[in-house]
Design a protein that fits this description.
Blueprint (H helix, E strand, L loop, with lengths): L1 E2 L10 H13 L9 H21 L6 E4 L2 H16 L5 E5 L4 H12 L3 E5 L9 H7 L4 E5 L13 H11 L4 E5 L16 E5 L10 E5 L24 H15 L2 H19 L6 E2 L9 E5 L5 H9 L3 E2 L13 H7 L2 H5 L1 E5 L6 H21 L1
Parallel strand pairs: 1-11, 3-4, 3-5, 5-6, 6-7
Antiparallel strand pairs: 2-8, 7-8, 9-10, 10-12
Helix pairs in contact: 1-7, 2-7, 3-4
Bound molecules: 4'-deoxy-4'-aminopyridoxal-5'-phosphate.
C-alpha cells in the first residue's frame, strides 16, 4: 500500500499506541476519584497537561482538551460570539477555511451574525487590502487557518493580526492550526485562539485541543459538574496521554522532517510538470506536505479509483468535502475546471522514496489510459 493522504488522517505511531494501551490497562481509575487509583490517574493527567503546555509554550490554564479540531473550532467561534456579542455582530473568515468553519458560520447567520468573507490572492494567501476593508468596529472575531487543508497555503498570521489590530484593537483572532502543527514550525500564540487535532499528528482520533489566551472568556458549549468548565466529563486519560506523546514526537526534528517531505514534493512536481494538462496548484507559500494538482480532463474520482487498484491512496480535496469542487483552488485561480478536477497528494516524513516511485508509475499508467480514453 502507498498511503499519500496524510492530511486526511495519519496512522498512529506504534509508541503512541503503546502509551494508549498501557494507560488504558494500568490507569483505568477515574482521575476525579479520591482513592489511590484515582490519585495515580490524576497525577498522570496533570503530568500530561504539563507536557502539553511546555511543548506548546502556553500556560496550563490556556488550553482545553476537545474531541478534535471540529469541536475546538466550534468552542472557539461560538464561545467568543456568545460572550462578546454585545460588542458587535460581525465575523470575518477567509475563503479557504475548513468546511467545519463554514458550518459554524451558517449557524451563526441564523442567530443574526453577519459573516464577511475575505478574499485570497492568486498565491493562496489572505488578501490584506480586502481584510482591511472587512474588519470593522463591529467585527468581534476573525478566523483564518494557519495552513489551508487543500493546497497547503500557509497564512502569514503575524501580519494578519497586525492588520486586524490597526482597524479594531479588540477584535479576536482565531486560527485553525490543524494542518500546521506538527508539520511546520508555528507559534500558537500568533492567534488568540487556535485549534488542533490528534489524528493529524500521528496520534489517536477523538482528541484535539483549543488554545485560548488567558484573557479571553468563552461561553461553554456544554455544561457538567463544575461551573465554567469548557469540556466537562471524565477526562479521557489514555487519549490525553497518548496525544501528549504524539505532540512531543511530532515537534521533534520538525525541520529535518520537513526537508525530507520537501524532497518528495519536488520530485513529484518535477515529474508531473512534464504533463501539459496537469496543473500544479501551488505557490511559494505552500507547505511541502500538501501537493494539489488539477487533472483538467479527467474526473478526480475516476483517477482516485484507478490509483486505488494499485493500492495507491490519494484524495480529491479535503476528506470532509470530497466530490465538491475545491473552493481553495477556485479562489486562487478563478477557473471552474481547475477547481473541479483536483487531486490532493499529502506526504509525510514516513513516506518512502520507493512509495513515491510507485505512485509516479501508477500515475503515468492511469493518466495515459484515461487521457487516451477521452
Ligand atoms: N480543520 C482542518 C484544517 C482540518 O484539516 C480538519 C480535518 N480534516 C479539521 C479541522 C477537523 O478535524 P477533526 O477531524 O479533528 O474534527
Amino acid at each position: 500500500m502507498v498511503y499519500l493522504d496524510y492530511s486526511a488522517t495519519t496512522p498512529v505511531l506504534p509508541e503512541v499506541l503503546d502509551s494508549y494501551n498501557k494507560v488504558t490497562e494500568e490507569y483505568f481509575g477515574n482521575p476525579n476519584s479520591l482513592h489511590g487509583l484515582g490519585i495515580k490517574s490524576h497525577e498522570l493527567l496533570e503530568s500530561a497537561y504539563t507536557q502539553i503546555s511546555e511543548l506548546l509554550n502556553i500556560k496550563r490554564q490556556e488550553f482545553v482538551i476537545t474531541s478534535g479540531a471540529t469541536e475546538a473550532n466550534n468552542l472557539a467561534i461560538l464561545g467568543v460570539c456568545n460572550t462578546y456579542k454585545r460588542y458587535g455582530n460581525r465575523i470575518v473568515v477567509s475563503r479557504m477555511e475548513h468546511p467545519s468553519i463554514y458550518g459554524i458560520c451558517k449557524h451563526l447567520e441564523k442567530q443574526g451574525f453577519i459573516i464577511d468573507y475575505v478574499d485570497v490572492t492568486e498565491e493562496g494567501v489572505v488578501d490584506f487590502d480586502d481584510l482591511k476593508r472587512k474588519v470593522t468596529r463591529d467585527t468581534i472575531l476573525v478566523s483564518i487557518c494557519a495552513v489551508n487543508s487543500e493546497t497547503g497555503a500557509r497564512q502569514p498570521l503575524k501580519t494578519v493580526r497586525q492588520v486586524i489590530r490597526k482597524n479594531n484593537e479588540n477584535c479576536i483572532l482565531h486560527s485553525d492550526m490543524t494542518q500546521a502543527i506538527g508539520k511546520v514550525n508555528v507559534s500558537i500564540q500568533d492567534a488568540d485562539l487556535a485549534s488542533m487535532s490528534g489524528h493529524k499528528i500521528y496520534g489517536p482520533k477523538g482528541i484535539g485541543l483549543l488554545y485560548k489566551n488567558k484573557n479571553l472568556v468563552l461561553t461553554p458549549l456544554m455544561y457538567g459538574v463544575h461551573e465554567g468548565e469548557l469540556h466537562p466529563g471524565t477526562p479521557p486519560l489514555p487519549l490525553i496521554v497518548s496525544f501528549a506523546k504524539a505532540l512531543r514526537l511530532a515537534l521533534k526534528d520538525i525541520q529535518k522532517k520537513e526537508e525530507i517531505v520537501r524532497k518528495f514534493n519536488e520530485k513529484i512536481v518535477a515529474h508531473l510538470s512534464e504533463y501539459k494538462n496537469v496543473l500544479i496548484n501551488s505557490s511559494k507559500y505552500c507547505i511541502p506536505h500538501i501537493l494539489n494538482i488539477s487533472l483538467m480532463d479527467i474526473k478526480p474520482e475516476t483517477f482516485i479509483h484507478a490509483l486505488e487498484a494499485d493500492e495507491v491512496y490519494v484524495s480529491s480535496n479535503t476528506a470532509c468535502s470530497s466530490l465538491e469542487p475545491s473552493a481553495s483552488v477556485y479562489n486562487m485561480y478563478k477557473d471552474e475546471i481547475r477547481s473541479k478536477t483536483t487531486i490532493r497528494i499529502s506526504l509525510s516524513y514516513l513516506t518512502l522514496p520507493s512509495e513515491v516511485t510507485i505512485f509516479l508509475e501508477s500515475f503515468d499508467k492511469h493518466y495515459q489510459e484515461l487521457a487516451n480514453l477521452k
